[in-house]
Design a protein that fits this description.
2 copies of one chain form a homodimer. By secondary structure, chain A is mostly helical. Chain A is elongated and about 60 Å long. In chain A, about 40% of the residues are buried. The structure holds a DNA duplex.
Chain lengths: ~220, ~220
Amino acid sequence: MAQTATTGKAAGSTRLDRRKARTRQALIDAAVGLIAEGRGERASIQEITDAADIGFGSFYNHFESKDELFRTASEEVLERWGRMIDRACADLGDPAEVFATSFRISGRLGWTHPDLARFITGAGLDLLDIPRGLAPRALRDIKLGQEAGRFTIPNAEVALSTVAGALLGLLRVHQQQPEQIDETAVDQLAEAILRMFGIPAREAKRVAARELPDIAAW
Amino acid sequence: MAQTATTGKAAGSTRLDRRKARTRQALIDAAVGLIAEGRGERASIQEITDAADIGFGSFYNHFESKDELFRTASEEVLERWGRMIDRACADLGDPAEVFATSFRISGRLGWTHPDLARFITGAGLDLLDIPRGLAPRALRDIKLGQEAGRFTIPNAEVALSTVAGALLGLLRVHQQQPEQIDETAVDQLAEAILRMFGIPAREAKRVAARELPDIAAW
DNA sequence: ATTATCTATAGATCTATAGATAATGC
DNA sequence: ATTATCTATAGATCTATAGATAATGC
């Protein structure tokens, strides 16, 4: 009874559980950092445990292989990203606006969430193979837009890959020359993508200019 | 005198030179195949020399490291691609049409040049960091289009990354579901990208529908 | 005689595990 | 007593090189 008193962590967990969870999280954080540095799977397990500041052997208490760690780490980060997008789009009905809002928020990650942005550029198009975060949401929204007759672009998968290329380019250029990418640049690109999807130019401008929820508060 | 008689190979080269060149080419072909399989730099030198059917030690007669081999192999393949594009666009003046033609030819690689297409999807967005092939040409054409006032899209680098995402999506879907991507699908995507770049919809349709040179002959 | 290729191997990693140590549970 | 962490290391790779073999030049 008293032992299940909350301690600010998950209820029902022992101190041992929490210590284990911390070690596991340290490994995940280290993996995320390595992907962001662009060294991804090329790092050795030794480098990973050094970065996480844990003993080498502890790695195998949590993951069977580097692959499993990197997959887990990617899914966790992208899941956070996905929930952020869901929150921002909760009240929107029009698929075109959902899509545009998701993209405009993602394009701002360079300054709102630099670590996440660096992870995304580090992962590259592999993002599309991870069933979390942008890919499943954007694909769903593109298909909804097609069904609603707002998007005339024929192939949703190809459209998704195009959007990923656009976002990665945006984040990459921002990392290299931050002054070139501001909110206007992100919104103009969102507008351009809407045109590509088949939304008339005038309407695309309107949809991409709607006010966004306050990102800073997240 | 008689010794420089041509033998169908480069003049002035000895038989030793030609044997060396064959070995080197076998290594490059093996590297291209490994990239196409998506195993790129993860293959060991032993696997590379096995695939090339040459002795392990010969590797170091030609390249100092795997990195150097893969860089050389990528540049060689992309250079061939680039020259193919140059040939097709030689007589075109309008930057928008040069761009559209380059893209429409590249989108057809899935059936005109399947090996090259598989290499491209295997390399992914790393294509943008190799100063050969699509990237420098597309960047040049986008900038020309901007200067000519035909493209209103603001950032050429971001636009380039978007186009790369589109092409990679196209080739990837074609590999997985060939029936989904035919010439019409490629041309529709080219048209959509022109709209994204700021070309009016009607004009985009016109530019993306011009007759292409006969690709089969290449 | 010269040059490239091949085979064999030393030495440097890197992974996976065993066994000792430390922390927590009860 | 139980569980997770740590250190140390065996065994499996993998790279780079040395030295032997084969092909070509002259």
